[in-house]
Amino acid sequence: MHAAAPFPIEDGGPEVIWHEADLLDIKQSEKLLADVGATHLMHFAWYAEPKKYWNSEENYKWGSASASLLKAFYSHGGRRVVMAGTCAEYDWQYGRCVENLTPLLPATVYGKCKHALQEELAGFSKKTGLSSAWGRIFFLYGPNEHPGRLVSSVIISVLQDKPAACSHGNQIRDFLHVQDVASAFVALLESDVRGPVNIASGKPVALKEVIVKIGEKLNRPELIRLGEISASKDEPAELVADARRLREEVGWAAEYTLDSGLDQTIRWWKEKLDKMKGR
User: Fold this and answer.
1) Is the pLDDT of residue 160 over 80?
2) Exposure check for the chain: N or C terminus, fewer CB within 10 A?
3) CATH of the domain spanning 145-173+202-279, picked from 3.30.70.930, 3.30.70.100, 3.20.20.70, 3.90.25.10
4) What is the per-residue pLDDT across 224-249, written as a single tens digit (0 to 9) for each?
5) Is the separation of the CB atoms in 108 and 88 below 8 Å?
6) Beta bridge partners of 15
7) pTM, rounded to two decimals
8) The domain 1-137 belongs to what CATH superfamily?
């Protein structure tokens, strides 16, 4: 493990000091927390390779490592922790997900391991008095997203003048721009709200609406091919969050609408692809 020198995020902005450590190595985590002595912890690290993470054994490693990190954080004076959960913890047959009301019945290893960590966090916090919250992320999109995910893959296909083959697109989902996801977590960390909180827009939208918008924004609607591939049999027809805790208790509001978020994401991918082509 080593610590990097501080550097400004922007001219005149705050400084950030980076510390590097392998969080799967308990000894490195212990040393990191002993050296830093942080009062607040926001934990996102996990195995998340698209199409592989759902039932990968890596989930068990990260669940165990995250529990160890939590205990080490507390033992070195930690006071407030927020960890990232997932909508995959919920029982998807209900469609609309409300914290502490909708049953939790994860169907994947990823969801089960995340939920197990959430239960450990809740139990540990109750026992020790540690202030904690658990942010359940729904569907995010934006810059730096893996090119194989829905929004990025459609944008890339259309920018490259290739057909974007999609399923029927009738599935109802809840999308939130990645920068809004980040700001929601910061607001949650800085609050005293405890327990599970959905990190989502709370606004249902059909996948086909998102997909068609991308084609229209790029002036290539003919490249959008709905119904060309089969939808997964495991996909729920609807998966949307109740986001009232995030709005009313945390006091957070999104910066991006779906339209402005897609516009920003399209610009980012266009610039990235242009650079790759050496333009």
Assistant:
1) yes
2) C
3) 3.90.25.10
4) 999 999 988 888 999 999 999 999 99
5) yes
6) 8
7) 0.92
8) NAD(P)-binding Rossmann-like Domain (3.40.50.720)
